[in-house]
Every structure is written in C-alpha cells, then in structure tokens.
C-alpha cells in the first residue's frame, strides 16, 4: 500500500517528496485587558528524502529488561515467531507502537497505517548493539528479565546468545535516574487556565515508588487523582494498572528510533529561500515529546505535556510533508448542504448509498 497525494503543491521525484506548505499559527500578546492575536502564515517547502538508510541503534544498558526485550521483539517480529500460551497461539506483534500499530485518517473513512505516510525504516532492518556493565549475553539477560513467555525465550535463545554488550563504565546516576516526580506533566495545563489556578498555584502531588522484587518487570501503578468540581464538590479518580513495564517501553523505543531517523531526512526552508537554505529540525527533537516521560525541548521553548497535542504534533508534521493539512475536525463537508452535494458528486455515488456504506450496513 502506498499513499499518493493529488495536489500541484506536492512533487514526487526519485529521491524526494517535496511539498509547498502554508504553516499557520497565531501570536497572542496581553495588553492590559486586551489580548491581541495575530494570525501568521509561513510559506514553507518541506523536502523529505525517500532514501531509507541502513539503521543501527546502540543502547546504553543493552542487557537490562528494556534492552533485552527490545532486541527480542525485533527478532521475534522479524522471524514471525509464534508460541503456545494457555490462551492459545500468540504471534509476535508490535502492539503499542505508533509507527507499526496505529493508523491515520486521510479523509472520510479511509485510514492508512502510520508507517505508510512517508518512507520509514522497517523494524526488521534495525541492527542493534550497545553497552552494559554486565557482561551477560542477551539470551541470559532476557532470561533474567522474566518478561517473555518461556516458549518464546526458547526460540529466541540461539539468536540472542551470540549478542554481547560492549563493556561500559559504571555511572551510579544512570541506574533508575528517571524515578522522579511527575508533577511537571501538568504544568502546561495549570499555566493555561488562570480561571481555575491562581498564579504560581501547583497541584498537591506525592509520588511513592517501591521496588518489589517478587513482581519483577510486572509493575503496579496506583494513581489517585482528586479534583474540585462545581461548588466545591470533589471528584476522585483511582486507576490501578498492572503490566510488564518493558512490554510498554519496547514499542516506544522502536518509535523513537524510527521517527528519530525519519526526522533527520526532513529538510525545511521558506518558499522564498534558496535551496542551500534548507534546514533540519533543531537537534533537540521536541516533536518526539509524545514518546518521552519528561520531554526535552530547545532552550526557551515551551514544553508540551498534553498527550493528545504531542501525538497530533507528530501526525501533523508528517502529514505536512506530504502536503496534507492538520486534522481540524470541522468536517464542514458533512455539515454544509452545498459542500455535501459537491462531495457526493466527487465520489460519483448518490448520497444515500454512501451514508448506508458508512453505517456499515453494506
Ligand atoms: N515508563 C518508563 O518511562 C520506563 C519504563 C521502563 C524503563 N524505564 C527506564 O529505562 C531504563 C532502563 O530500564 P530497564 O527496565 O531496562 O532497567 P534494568 O535495570 O533492567 O537495566 C538497566 C541496565 O543498565 C545497565 N547499566 C547500569 N549502569 C550502566 C552503565 N554505566 N553503563 C552501561 N550500562 C549500565 C545495568 O547493568 C542493566 O543491565 C531505566 O532508567 C528505567 O527506569 C522507563
């Protein structure tokens, strides 16, 4: 399957997909009681190289639960492994991966796999290496991690035991350095609403992390959120989540690798600039925030923690590269009679039949 965009603004050559794209955003400024908003349009050219390179990835802590599970998942998917479980035969898959298991709506009811929007590295083709202070081979690491089913481990063993991490220097801070407070993930939400939050007000917040050896990689998370509703009422949400931590992390690692590589092949310039003025994204790739617990951004730029915004950012940047506008959810073509009539003519089918098909009764 491939996606072809019919537009005189999109040019496909042997090596590139080049698109003229009008990027629109607003600048807003508070002036006393007045907020001045200035819509801005930038006419850009986005040029994406179609040449997917050979991709290697080096993991620090390769022999850990994440490193060994990631390696196992790449090999299991590449070999199309299946293994028996008490619920039946399980197949290797990339569930949880944005690039491998998500789809994107391209108009009406047409969805395409995310990986078909632009040429991307295929997970099967990634070459993995890395460092660890442990000298265990990857088969031993996989066994120690206790993440994957034994019948799968058995099949993977011959492929994993030849893989050995390069030696590394012991750095105490490396271990579990990310076990910190998550209160900053709501900062942008709090700062965006001075009706609900006074200046400088922060939510009360406590995180407790306990290491329980018996449950291993099967992590438990108990989250309780209490918020205020109308007239001082309280709304409390309690979420209990149990899952293998590394099976959550592995597809995210894959997406970081695949999208990180893709974004190096995208060059952007103003339409009026010359060809030697094409630039890449800033090396702190904040477009990947969706995949990071605490996203890094270029100095002085805002951190976006809202998950939907982070996901929309990745999707819309990739859509821009093939000349498609961001999803605006206005769907006027289904609300304004004159557009509805034109739309049905475009499809060459009378409107009632289309509606019937959309209802899934065809
Ligand atoms: N939800 C999340 O964001 C999430 C989920 C899982 C893991 N993580 C984080 O990812 C990291 C790896 O997780 P994991 O489950 O694989 O942990 P792990 O403890 O199983 O593995 C860490 C590996 O790093 C190695 N190591 C330690 N110091 C090193 C050094 N100086 N140089 C090279 N290797 C070194 C260890 O020997 C070990 O094999 C951790 O920081 C963890 O907190 C985050």
UniProtKB/TrEMBL annotation:
Pfam families assigned: NAD_binding_5
Signal peptide feature range: none
Xref: InterPro entries: Myo-inos-1-P_Synthase (IPR002587), NAD(P)-bd_dom_sf (IPR036291)
GO biological process: inositol biosynthetic process; phospholipid biosynthetic process
One annotated GO molecular function: inositol-3-phosphate synthase activity
Protein name listed in UniProt: Inositol-3-phosphate synthase
């Amino acid at each position: 399957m491939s996606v072809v965009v019919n537009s005189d603004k999109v040019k496909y050559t042997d090596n590139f997909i080049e698109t003229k794209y009008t990027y629109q955003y607003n600048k807003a400024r508070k002036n006393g009681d007045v907020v001045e908003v200035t819509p801005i349009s930038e006419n850009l050219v986005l040029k994406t190289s179609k040449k997917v390179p050979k991709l290697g990835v080096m993991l620090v802590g390769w022999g850990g639960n994440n490193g060994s599970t990631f390696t196992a998942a790449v090999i299991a998917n590449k070999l199309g492994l299946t293994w028996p479980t008490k619920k039946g035969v399980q197949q290797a898959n990339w569930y949880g991966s944005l690039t491998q298991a998500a789809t994107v709506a391209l108009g009406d009811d047409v969805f395409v796999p995310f990986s078909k929007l632009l040429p991307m590295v295929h997970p099967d083709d990634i070459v993995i290496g890395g460092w660890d202070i442990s000298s265990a081979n990857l088969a031993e690491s996989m066994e120690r991690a206790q993440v994957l089913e034994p019948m799968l481990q058995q099949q993977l063993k011959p492929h994993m035991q030849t893989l050995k991490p390069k030696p590394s220097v012991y750095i105490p801070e490396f271990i579990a350095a990310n076990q910190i407070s998550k209160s900053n993930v709501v900062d942008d939400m709090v700062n965006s609403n001075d009706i609900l939050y006074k200046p400088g007000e922060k939510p009360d917040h406590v995180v407790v992390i306990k290491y329980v050896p018996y449950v291993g990689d099967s992590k438990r998370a108990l989250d309780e959120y209490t918020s205020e509703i109308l007239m001082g009422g309280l709304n409390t949400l309690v979420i209990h989540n149990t899952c293998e931590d590394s099976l959550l992390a592995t597809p995210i690692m894959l997406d970081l690798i695949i999208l990180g590589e893709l974004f190096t092949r995208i060059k952007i310039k103003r339409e009026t600039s010359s060809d030697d003025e094409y630039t890449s994204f800033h090396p702190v790739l904040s477009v990947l925030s969706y995949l990071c617990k605490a996203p890094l951004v270029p100095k002085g730029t805002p951190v976006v923690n809202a998950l939907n915004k982070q996901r929309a950012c990745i999707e819309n940047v990739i859509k821009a590269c093939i000349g498609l506008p961001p999803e605006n959810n206005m769907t006027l073509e289904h609300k304004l009679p004159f557009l509805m009539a034109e739309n049905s003519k475009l499809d060459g089918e009378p409107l009632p039949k289309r509606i019937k098909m959309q209802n899934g009764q065809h």
